[in-house]
Amino acid sequence: MVYLLLILAVWLSYFFVLGFKPKNQNRTRLLLAFSGSFLLALTIFELLPSVYRATDHKTIGIFILLGILLQVFLEFYSQGLEHGHSPHSSGKGGSRVLIFGSLCIHALLEGIPIQSYQPIVVGILIHKIPVTVVLSIFLINLKLKRSYSFGIILLFSLMTPIGSLLAQNFNLIKQYQAPLLALVIGVFLHISTVILFESSKGHKVNARKLLVIILGIAVAYLV
């Protein structure tokens, strides 16, 4: 059921863009702000306490920092699609592969904690909606064949469930679960904080954005 919801969130967002072709991204930015605060709060409330109980604190700290650096590296190629930025480059095959490949790696990593930490599923679901909207608009602007776009969306929708299945069924991943989870925490920390600071123009915190951020934290606390 969880996997179906994750897949549906991507496809429904894609068909929404196909049907309505949204141009005003103000609501997308507010949804991003909510998802960023929600994901950040869940990471602090749920993931961090658990992972620090599991193994040596310095080891966990190193992997969290590696996760932050990994996400910075991925964004160098994805051009910030993970936090709602539409790529400026519509270059030929090679750059497109890097954009979509980086986004898929990010989505794969998101799947690692979802079976052990159910509340994080809600955060990932909410996060996927604006990201898929931006990705879908980008695909439309590239004027790709519809079959190619479907293939990209299909692959993207499956990556998080695949990440979760790998985490459940591969002994090597189970053996290093705490360091890998710390790596994912680093990815979440980077993504969520960037979303909070970049979800409005000029880095201005208006009343609506502040309210949405507070709401995201409050909902995460209650989940």
Report a brief summary of the structure.
By secondary structure, the chain is an all-alpha fold. It has one domain.
Task: Describe what you observe in this structure.
The chain has 223 residues and is mostly helical. It has one domain. Helix content is 80%, strand content 0%. It is built from nine helices and no strands. The protein has helices spanning 2-20, 26-54, 57-78, 93-110, 119-142, 146-169, 171-175, 177-198, 207-222. Helix 1 packs parallel to helix 5 and helix 3 (57-78) packs antiparallel against helix 4 (93-110). The chain is globular. The mean pLDDT is 84.
Task: List key phrases describing it.
223 residues; mainly alpha; 0% strand
Radius of gyration: 17 Å
Number of strands: 0
Order of helices and strands: HHHHHHHHH
The span between the termini is 18 Å
Strand content: under 5%
Biggest sheet, open or closed, and with what strands and sense? Answer: none
In DSSP terms (H or I, runs of 4 or more residues), the helix count works out at 9
Helix content: over 70%
Give the uncertain stretches in residue-range form: none
Structural class: mainly alpha
